[in-house]
């Protein structure tokens, strides 16, 4: 079983409270998701994030195919971190940790996503040509959008 990891850090010149208020509002996920993804929240975004919250989305990640995605916020500590895990969707495993910490002049945000693809060897074959580039594209968009919204610091991406 191959588990992949996407790791991204980003620094923004905002307070930890501003970062938390934005990141912990599920409705803001649409703002930082590329339009072509057809991202639409179906339910669960009616209040700020809390452990146990279930959020249902529709996304169109590839070839115009609509996919339902259900995530649960499994952990949430205000102004520090939260974790979302896929309960239903396109991945065999999706575990996304979001950390924020105060630094000189702003905050550092860190995303660590551990994921596994379905379909065994076929999933392994499509990872480098479809899944990995698509995830990098989505998170690069997110980085640029956050920079537009809150200002610019140097960013670092690693896979």
SSE blueprint:
Blueprint: E1 4-12, H1 16-23, H2 28-31, E2 40-43, E3 54-62, E4 65-77, E5 81-88, E6 93-103, E7 106-116, H3 120-150, E8 155-158
Antiparallel strand pairs: 1-7, 1-8, 2-3, 3-4, 4-5, 5-6, 6-7
The portion of residues assigned to helices is 25-40%
CATH C-level class is Alpha Beta
CATH architecture: 2-Layer Sandwich
Strand-pairing-aware structural class = alpha+beta
Spans of at least 5 consecutive residues whose pLDDT stays below 50 are none
Based on CA inertia axes, which overall geometry fits?
A: globular
Calculate Rg over CA atoms.
15 Å
Q: How many distinct folded domains?
A: 1
In CATH, the topology is named: Alpha-D-Glucose-1,6-Bisphosphate, Chain A, domain 4
Q: Which strand order spans the largest sheet, edge to edge or round the barrel?
A: 2-3-4-5-6-7-1-8
Q: What proportion strand?
A: 35-45%
Cα(first) to Cα(last) distance is: 18 Å
Tell me, rounded to a whole number, the average pLDDT: 93
CATH superfamily: START domain
Distinct helical segment count: 3
Order of helices and strands: EHHEEEEEEHE
Number of strands: 8
Instruction: Please outline the major beta sheet.
Output: 8 strands, antiparallel
InterPro entries: START-like_dom_sf (IPR023393)
Organism: Gelidibacter salicanalis
Protein name: SRPBCC family protein
